[in-house]
Amino acid sequence: xxxNKHIIPLSLAALFTCTGPTWGADAPAVPQPFGPxxxxxxxxxxxFPVGKLGVLLNYQYCExxxxxxxxxxxxxxxxxxxxxxxxxxxxxxTEGLDIRTATPIYxxxxxxxxNGERNHLGWIGDTAIALHKxxxxxxxxxxxxxxxxxxxxxxxxxVSNKSxxxxxxxxxxxxxxxxxxxxxxxxxxxxxxxxYTFTEGAHDYxxxxxxxxxxxxxxxxxxxxxxxxxxxxxxxDQSEKNGKSQKDSKNEWYAGPKVAFKYRPxxxxxxxxxxxxMARWFEANTPSEGFRIELKLSKTFDLF
Length: 304
Hints:
Blueprint: H1 7-15, E1 52-70, E2 72-75, E3 78-94, E4 97-112, E5 118-121, E6 127-136, E7 145-154, E8 173-184, E9 187-198, E10 205-206, E11 210-220, E12 225-236, E13 240-241, E14 244-245, E15 250-263, E16 268-302
Antiparallel strand pairs: 1-2, 1-3, 1-16, 3-4, 4-5, 4-6, 6-7, 7-8, 8-9, 9-11, 10-13, 11-12, 12-15, 13-14, 15-16
Protein name: Transporter
Keywords: Signal
InterPro entries: FApF
């Protein structure tokens, strides 16, 4: 497994930029599970405490298992190994309203099995910023937590011959999300759906509109450890190059088990998930991931 030398230092720097106490030392009477472990920018249904800053890191490692078209493998001409980090910030503005950002940092190792050519691609992608508003609160008598996002993608990428247009090409984007969270006893279910669309960016490339649906179930074994399962479905429309459709739409569904550790007095939590393909379909020849290993680290700081 290859780790890009830039990802770990930047991730640690992001996690320890601020200082201060967090969730509070009092554990709830019934153990409560951590939220989704996989990388999902959408809201689910819960909010964020007022005056607190959350710093999160999602890390994903995956390898392709061949080039696929339709639902079948067509060749093994290209192999990709991906290290993708997403640095996220969350801040509680007022009760039921917070702001969230997400910036991808990535490294892709590409090997052409036909001619032996090898390349490293990547660095930093475009940043998403969203306002997150809670509409229903289960703790206040609602049947579940319900929230919505309104978001904007801003050009923060370093466009070069090493950047990956699909992750970031200096384009603007806009979108939104809706999320639902239901808790009962030590169980928690999260469901969120978000959709984004983009302008044309560098290299005359327009990223496809996409819809992502994330489902997560967590069970708190005790105040420190959780178990559960998560699922993520992505629908991507066709991208455009020089104003022409590339006929490269795709659908991917991954799911698998997760575990989590949380320590509330320090405001720290960590989740680990192993995701495997349940269904895949590609309009064009596309390298496809045979598995995804996902890690999430979360630290909350009290600014006031």
